[in-house]
Amino acid sequence: MFETIASILLFVGLIIKFIKNLLLKYVAFGVVLTFQFSIAAATIAFVLLFYGFVITSLISLYNFGSSIGDYINSSSSALSCFMGLLELLGILSACNQGYTLFFASVSTVLVFRLMSFTFFAMRMIANELFKLGVLLGQALS
Q1: 3-state DSSP helix/strand/coil percent for the chain, to nearest 5?
Q2: How far is CA 85 from CA 66, 100, 131, in A?
Q3: Mean pLDDT of 17-45
Q4: What is the distance between the alpha carbons of residues 130 and 141, in angstroms, rounded to a whole number?
Q5: d(CA 98, CA 91)
Q6: pLDDT value, residue 76
Q7: Where are the domains of the chain?
Q8: pTM of the model
Q9: d(CA 78, CA 62)
């Protein structure tokens, strides 16, 4: 009688252990898969937001540099007189042309830096998607 109860309990224990291991495997897989999806989505969102910030900053900087002459000319008469003198001497037009050249060179350097950042970000995204593929491949097999 005791041996029968022990064998039944052993069998029930094996079934419980099997179910526990199976559930633990799938729960851990679900947690890791969710974490990988969130990391990939956060990386893509960060890259898009970063590019939006850089483009907005470039547009704001260009608009500020373009409109600063109009702002100075529309202010007080003493400042307008000084700006008229600078314009007469040609210094103001030289500064405007210099600003245009400066903005072009700075934006070119920034584009090259963004290109290197893009390669780095695409490598990070590819790594995350590869990890997701490996996890999904393990789940399907």
Answers
A1: 95, 0, 5
A2: 20, 21, 65
A3: 81
A4: 17
A5: 10
A6: 65
A7: 36-140
A8: 0.53
A9: 27
